[in-house]
């Protein structure tokens, strides 16, 4: 019977279970062998790094957590002889002073206004940064127009109190702007009516803004000398960011423009601002400006560094954006023109979306740099976070050996959280937007 | 038109305009504004420090509050503009602040070249030394051969050199870039003595790992008369600054305090009567009301009270009165008579 023979034939109808690789080629041991000890050089490096970590990490952990003091009302809590053990970071100091670090000297009863400002800022940031948020065009209007006005009214109390001469000047200037748009349109053989409407629209937006600023909202005025802490740090950074991106794009376009005056003006502005250190701009603004202005006029002390930082960031942003514009292949421009698009359409619809995507890392890099540069305003006596910490750490009530380190550690944590957040966000956006470039 | 354009430009960019005071008639402009602007320190223990709520406290701060009390009968009607050392004098010159009470040393060049007046000295400071108790030194004269921690490139370094040369002593200077580093080095035993302004010595000692192990030596080797400053050219305003301080000194000398000022109004002592305005019209002569001194003492207290509360025994600094004691007690604070 042939079937008997068949019974000896063995056909495996199931996949045999694969054996695991040998122990030395898998698991953490193999990973360590491959990555950390793959040769004598790497072995030495690994050992050196391990030793350095051993030297650095335990004292930091000791300082920040193990020996840290979390509760207490004055210096006695944070002194080794009264606390009875070696004292590391004195977080009780930060907890005690946290309101000062956040609001500065902003009047206690008015601090809800600052909280609303923080909430509005968060709303604007999320609206613009969350790529799937609804109506991001409205978000842009909110962030770049409504939000600054609301912040101004909330933080200062509004009621800007412009003089009659100011409004007279504004009306004259408005008429000039509208007339200028009309004249330019006629000169360029474009239809006059839409040009005049655009001019009137610009004037109307500015007028509404000014009227909102002057309206009396019944809020108690809070002079900027009282602002401080995280409020000022975020304010300076936000003003820099809000101002620098649009202004930087305009400057970059201006620098590549074929109109000689526009190009020269952009080049001079960018090169001049980039040619001086920020600290010089700040000291110039805070120390010299009051001497140049007529006696009855001063610019607010906080506004001076705000303007300085905004200009400074714009110049850097312009160069970043220009990098993106340069990287656009010529065909993109030619393609856009062959479709019959005019210059604004070409830039807004074709060039800028691609160019800005290329330079996202550069833009975020500039923002991170700007965010940290805001601490320079401390030098001209503006109470940003760093300055409030510096002023608090000398408080005799909290005089203890580790108070300064604790204050700076808190500042480091604050800056790290924000800068790291920005950098992670930019990575995420790059990954999402880069899909078209993967071939 | 140009002016309008300029103001529009600022309105558009900053939207934050404020008006400065003109050089003349500061008192009128202060009264018109309804508050005093005071250039203050950005942070100096005992002289100008923010508390946990951000309210400024300190000896210089209380001086400005005393002025606001004299003018408005309300010590809160003062805005403090913290000024860095670099821009403090320009802020005063440009009219941004009405008075500068920011531990500034009165010197001739500041009065003549910068066009400032220092009408009063509210704190006599000077460079001193701190040593460890176990060193067994009780006078700076015994510091021969010592190593001394000091901050680089400051006048303290020069004063130190002068003092040791004048006394024919040897020393070794160990200099650091910042005051923090300097004190840290001294605290960790890097040098025998630490030198800076005496008021600073007390503040630094508090931060030492064992404050009780250190003493401040009695010698003061330099003159640092600290006082409020005003612009040249408005003598009435200068007088107000001067007599705000003098009123506080006279009050201390006459025993008028925050607590007893109301009862003192009925005193028969002619000096007290003139001080408190129950006799004569001294307040009106300087553009204030006759009870100006009462307002100061009622809200702030006399000089001694302010001193003890901010830098003396009532504070953590525990600075001795020393040169800042009244002249009757061997100090330099001499209130010129109000008559």
TrEMBL record, chain A:
Key word Cell membrane present: yes
Cellular location(s): Cell inner membrane; Cell membrane
Principal cellular location given in the protein's record: membrane
Single Gene Ontology BP annotation: amino acid transport
Domain of life, per lineage: Bacteria
InterPro entries per record: AA_ABC_transptr_permease_3TM, ArtM/GltK/GlnP/TcyL/YhdX-like, MetI-like, MetI-like_sf
GO cellular component, one term: ATP-binding cassette (ABC) transporter complex
Keyword Iron: no
Family: Belongs to the binding-protein-dependent transport system permease family. HisMQ subfamily.
Full protein name: Amino acid ABC transporter membrane protein 2 (PAAT family)
Automatic annotation (TrEMBL), chain B:
InterPro entries, sorted: Bact_solute-bind_prot3, SBP_3_CS, Solute-binding_3/MltF_N
GO biological process, alphabetically ordered: amino acid transport
Database matches in SMART domains: PBPb
Record keywords, A-Z: Signal, Transport
PANTHER family, alphabetized: AMINO ACID ABC TRANSPORTER PERMEASE, AMINO-ACID ABC TRANSPORTER-BINDING PROTEIN YHDW-RELATED
Family: Belongs to the bacterial solute-binding protein 3 family.
Record protein name field: General L-amino acid transport system substrate-binding protein
């Amino acid at each position: 019977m042939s079937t008997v023979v068949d019974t000896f034939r063995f056909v495996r109808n199931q996949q045999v279970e694969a054996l695991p690789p040998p122990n030395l080629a898998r698991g953490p041991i193999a990973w360590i062998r491959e990555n950390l000890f793959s040769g004598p050089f790497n072995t030495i490096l690994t050992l050196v790094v391990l030793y350095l970590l051993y030297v650095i990490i335990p004292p930091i952990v000791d300082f920040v957590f193990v020996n840290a003091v979390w509760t207490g009302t004055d210096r006695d809590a944070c002194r080794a002889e009264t606390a009875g053990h070696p004292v590391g970071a004195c977080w009780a100091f930060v907890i005690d002073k946290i309101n000062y670090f956040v609001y500065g000297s902003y009047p206690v009863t008015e601090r809800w206004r600052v909280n609303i400002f923080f909430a509005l800022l968060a709303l604007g940031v999320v609206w613009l940064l969350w790529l799937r948020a609804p109506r991001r065009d409205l978000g842009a209007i909110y962030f770049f127009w409504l939000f600054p006005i609301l912040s101004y009214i909330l933080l200062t109390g509004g009621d800007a109190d412009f003089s009659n001469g100011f409004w007279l000047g504004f009306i004259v200037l408005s008429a000039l702007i509208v007339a200028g748009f009309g004249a330019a349109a006629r000169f360029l053989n474009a239809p006059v009516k839409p040009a005049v409407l655009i001019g009137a629209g610009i004037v109307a937006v500015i007028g509404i803004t000014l009227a909102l600023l002057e309206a009396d909202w019944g809020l108690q005025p809070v002079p900027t000398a009282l602002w401080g802490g995280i409020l000022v740090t975020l304010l300076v950074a936000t003003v820099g960011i809000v101002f620098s991106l649009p202004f930087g794009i305009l400057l970059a376009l201006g620098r590549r423009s074929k109109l000689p005056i526009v190009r020269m003006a952009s080049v001079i502005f960018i090169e001049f601002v980039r040619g001086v250190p920020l600290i010089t701009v700040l000291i110039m603004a805070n120390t010299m400006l009051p001497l140049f202005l007529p006696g009855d006029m001063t610019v607010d002390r906080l506004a001076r560094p705000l303007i300085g930082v905004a200009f400074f960031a714009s110049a850097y942003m312009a160069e970043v954006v220009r990098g993106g514009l340069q990287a656009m292949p010529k065909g993109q421009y030619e393609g856009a023109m062959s479709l019959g698009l005019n210059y604004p359409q070409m830039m807004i619809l074709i060039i800028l979306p691609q160019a800005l995507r290329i330079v996202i890392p550069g833009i975020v890099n500039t923002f991170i740099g700007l965010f940290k540069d805001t601490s320079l305003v401390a030098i001209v006596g503006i109470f940003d976070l760093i300055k409030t910490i510096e002023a608090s750490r000398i408080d005799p009530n909290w005089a203890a050996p580790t108070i300064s380190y604790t204050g700076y550690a808190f500042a480091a944590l604050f800056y790290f959280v924000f800068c790291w957040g920005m950098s992670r966000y930019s990575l995420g956006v790059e990954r999402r937007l880069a899909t078209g470039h993967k071939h | 038109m140009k002016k309008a354009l300029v103001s529009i430009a600022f309105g558009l960019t900053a939207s934050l305009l404020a008006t400065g005071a003109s050089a003349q008639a500061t008192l009128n402009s202060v009264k018109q504004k309804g508050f005093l602007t005071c250039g203050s320190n950005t942070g100096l223990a005992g002289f100008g420090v923010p508390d946990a709520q951000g309210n400024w406290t300190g000896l210089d701060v209380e001086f400005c509050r005393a002025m606001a009390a004299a003018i408005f009968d309300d010590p809160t009607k003062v805005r403090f503009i913290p000024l860095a050392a670099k821009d403090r004098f320009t802020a005063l010159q440009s009219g941004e602040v009405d008075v500068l009470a920011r531990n500034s040393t009165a010197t001739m060049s500041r009065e003549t070249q910068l066009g400032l007046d220092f009408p009063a000295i509210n704190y006599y400071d000077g460079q001193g030394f701190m040593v460890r108790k176990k060193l067994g030194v009780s006078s700076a004269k015994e510091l021969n051969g010592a190593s001394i921690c000091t901050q680089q490139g400051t006048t303290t370094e020069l004063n130190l050199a002068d003092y040791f040369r004048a006394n024919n002593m040897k020393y070794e200077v160990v200099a650091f870039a910042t005051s923090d580093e300097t004190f840290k080095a001294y605290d960790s035993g890097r040098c025998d003595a630490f030198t800076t302004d005496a008021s600073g010595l007390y503040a630094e000692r508090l931060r030492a790992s064992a404050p009780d192990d250190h003493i401040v030596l009695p010698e003061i080797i330099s003159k640092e008369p600290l006082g409020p400053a005003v612009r040249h050219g408005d003598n009435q305003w200068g007088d107000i600054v001067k007599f705000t301080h003098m009123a506080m000194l006279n009050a201390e000398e006459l025993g008028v305090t925050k607590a007893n000022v109301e009862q003192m109004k009925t005193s028969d002592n002619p000096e007290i009567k003139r001080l408190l305005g129950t006799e004569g019209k001294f307040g009106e002569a300087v553009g204030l009301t006759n009870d100006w001194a009462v307002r100061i003492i009622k809200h702030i207290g006399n000089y001694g009270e302010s001193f003890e509360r901010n830098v003396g025994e009532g504070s953590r600094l525990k600075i001795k009165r020393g040169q800042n004691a009244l002249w009757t007690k061997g100090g330099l604070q001499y209130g010129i008579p109000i008559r």
